[in-house]
Structure formats: structure tokens, C-alpha cells
Write a structure and sequence with these properties.
The protein is mainly alpha-helical and 365 residues long. It has helices spanning 31-46, 60-70, 75-93, 103-114, 119-138, 165-174, 180-189, 193-197, 241-253, 273-286, 297-308, 313-320, 325-332, 339-364; strands at 2-6, 12-17, 23-28, 204-205, 210-213, 216-217, 225-226, 235-238. Helix 6 packs antiparallel against helix 7 and helix 12 packs across helix 13 (325-332). The radius of gyration is 30 Å and the shape is elongated.
Length: 365
């Protein structure tokens, strides 16, 4: 119910009650302005776009915390979201009322992040912020999200350049003894870093030469087991003999730790993946690898070996645990033999051979 009345001081008091029965009022110098306000409110209620003016006073940190608690994120995603909001968003917007944050301020925030972070990191961080504001809009906390028409830094797509075999072997030799076999394992199976760090003895079948991947070691502190990156990441991988030999030698020299973990911190506890990555970068630099070499490059090396030896897209997808063949092609399509060369070879091998036979027959006659 809405009404507008003139007060003794000459102002006009416009008021209405929302769906919860709360009364809202504003004062105007002109009756027409008050009536226009009531008409706008009535229209927003009828169209389902009404937002309680008081709702937007909740601070960003309060709403973001509530939003995080309701999400069904995987453990690693949960950690990534929490880190992005805590480190980058809360210092800028944490104490601000949700309704007070403007698109121009979000754009400035993105620009400031771009001065120190990689474009891909800026985009991911912004996506987490945008998710919070979108949820607030759906909850009728704010009328519109400020994350609209925001210009983001362009991410240049770089083609994967696999490490050379000699670099992989030299890096393996330069690793700390307790983690040396992780290089052979990842280069020979294409495991992700978390999957390799979480390998336990009971997941290895040395007789059949297979490895079951159904969990990974998370980035949490302390490290703990969690589900793989995606459902497609649950898989059984054939183990090459060179990997079997390296694992057997490693276990003989370094007994498994807690939970039967193959790779540990040195005192039998789960290994911190940050330390493992740091050790790889140091070893790779000593081996003459490119300056930006990282542990994940061993996964690319494995994929390049499969492609070089004629494995199909579906096989590479299955071995790597990609969610789709599209993901595999987007990453490694440039490593497959050029389709033009394959086309020429296919025609020459059939039609060319037939023409050669026909020519020899004519000569014989």
C-alpha cells in the first residue's frame, strides 16, 4: 500500500510497505517527485525487480563470507576462491556496503591488479568477484551488479612447447633424491602435480603395471587428500616399465610414509606441493630448461610422446583425464601431424600406388 501526504513543513512524505510489511518513506519538496518515486517502486515490485533499500547496506565482507559458506566448490576451488577474495578483493571492498560499489571502482581495481598480476590471474580473480555480486543481485541485495562492461586484460594464448627428453632426464638427476622419481612418474604418465604427490602404494599394481588415480593431494595446509580435478580425472593409467623401475627403486630407498604415500616431506608426512614445485624449478634451471619451466610441463611432455607415436585424440584425452576431447585439442592440436600432409600421404599411398601399377602393366604390354 502506498500513499503521499503533505507535512506541516511543506514537504511531501511518500511511503509504502514492502512484501514483508516493512514501511519505507522518503520526503520530497514536490508532490510530483514523490509520486514518481512511488510509481517506480510499484513497478519494480510488480516486475519482480524490487530491492529493499536497506539490504544493500550489508558490507562486501559480510555477504562474501555468507556466499562462500553456501558454495559447493571442490576443495581446491574453495581454497582458490578464498585466496582470491581474501588477498585481492577484501582489502579494496571488504568494509564497503554492497550497494555503494560502482562499476568504475571495479574497473580501477582490475587495472590495479593488472599492474602486478598475470592477465590470466586477473581474469580468474575478477570472475570470483563477479560471482559474489551476481549472487547478491539474485538475492535482491543490490539492484544491479557493478561487474558490467568491465574491460579485462587480454590473455595471449601460447602454444605448448614440450621439454626435450635430455632436459627431462637432466632435471630428474638434479632433483633432491627423495623427489627424483616424481619427475619420471609425471613424464611417463602425465599426472597432474596433485595426483603425483598423492600416489600411494596401494594404488600401484606392479604386476599388471597400472596406476589408479582416484584422488589427489590438495593445496590445503596441512596437505590432505581430496577428489581429482574433475570426474574425468578418475582413471587407470598404464605404467611404462621405466616408470615401474623408477618407483620400485624409489620405494626400496625411501620407504612409504603416512597413508602409504610414495613421496613425502622427508619425515613421512604428505609433501607440500609448493615445495615440490620450487624444487623442480631449481632443478630445471640447473638442467638448462627454459626460464619458465614448471612441474606441469612434464604433463605436456607425456602428451607430446603419445601424439608423436600416433595415439588418437581420445586416447590422449583419457590418459590425461581431460573432461573433453575439445580441451585436449585446444591444448595440443599443433603437435599432431599437419592435416594437409596426412591428406597428401593418404591420396599418394592409394591413388599413387594404383597409377604406378597401371604404368608398369602398360610397359609390360
Amino acid at each position: 500500500m502506498a500513499s503521499i501526504n503533505k507535512r506541516s513543513n511543506g514537504q511531501w512524505r511518500a511511503r509504502y510497505r514492502d512484501g514483508a510489511g516493512k514501511e519505507h518513506a522518503r520526503h520530497f519538496d514536490r508532490k510530483a517527485d514523490g509520486q514518481r518515486w512511488l510509481d517506480e517502486v510499484t513497478a519494480s515490485i510488480l516486475t519482480g525487480q524490487y530491492v529493499d533499500p536497506r539490504a544493500g547496506k550489508i558490507t562486501f565482507v559480510e555477504y562474501a563470507s555468507r556466499w562462500q559458506a553456501m558454495q559447493l566448490h571442490r576443495p581446491n576451488t574453495q581454497l582458490a576462491v578464498d585466496s582470491a577474495l581474501r588477498v585481492h578483493a577484501l582489502p579494496r571492498f571488504g568494509s564497503r556496503p554492497m550497494a555503494s560499489i560502482r562499476p568504475s571502482e571495479v574497473q580501477q581495481w582490475v587495472q590495479d591488479l593488472s599492474a602486478t598480476l598475470a592477465p590470466s590471474t586477473v581474469r580468474v580473480t575478477y570472475q570470483h568477484l563477479r560471482s559474489v555480486f551476481r549472487a547478491a543481485q539474485l538475492d535482491r541485495i543490490i539492484a544491479r551488479t557493478p561487474c558490467e562492461r568491465i574491460t579485462l586484460p587480454r590473455v595471449e594464448k601460447h602454444q605448448v612447447e614440450p621439454l626435450g627428453t635430455e632436459v627431462v632426464l637432466a632435471t630428474e638427476a638434479a632433483m633432491p633424491p627423495g623427489w627424483r622419481a616424481v619427475v619420471r612418474l609425471m613424464a611417463g604418465t602425465g599426472l597432474r602435480a596433485g595426483e603425483a604427490a598423492g600416489v600411494t602404494v596401494d594404488r600401484i599394481d606392479f604386476l599388471r603395471r597400472t596406476l589408479v588415480i582416484d584422488r589427489q593431494l590438495l593445496l590445503s595446509r596441512p596437505p590432505a587428500f581430496g577428489p581429482p580435478k574433475t570426474r574425468s580425472s578418475v582413471r587407470t593409467i598404464p605404467l611404462p616399465q621405466v616408470v615401474v623401475d623408477a618407483l620400485a627403486a624409489h620405494i626400496a630407498e625411501h620407504p612409504p610414509g603416512e597413508h602409504g604415500l610414495i613421496f613425502t616431506s622427508g619425515i613421512g608426512r604428505p609433501v607440500n606441493r609448493d615445495y615440490l614445485s620450487r624444487a623442480f624449478r631449481t632443478a630445471a634451471a640447473a638442467a638448462g630448461a627454459p626460464p619458465n619451466a614448471r612441474l606441469h610441463d612434464l604433463r605436456h611432455y607425456y602428451a607430446s610422446l603419445l601424439i608423436r607415436h600416433g595415439e588418437s585424440v581420445k586416447v590422449v584425452q583419457a590418459r590425461l583425464g581431460h573432461a573433453s576431447a575439445t580441451e585436449t585439442l585446444d591444448t595440443y592440436s599443433h603437435l599432431w601431424p599437419d592435416s594437409e600432409d596426412l591428406t597428401r600421404a593418404a591420396v599418394d599411398s592409394v591413388l599413387g600406388a594404383a597409377l604406378a601399377d597401371s604404368s608398369r602393366t602398360d610397359e609390360a604390354q
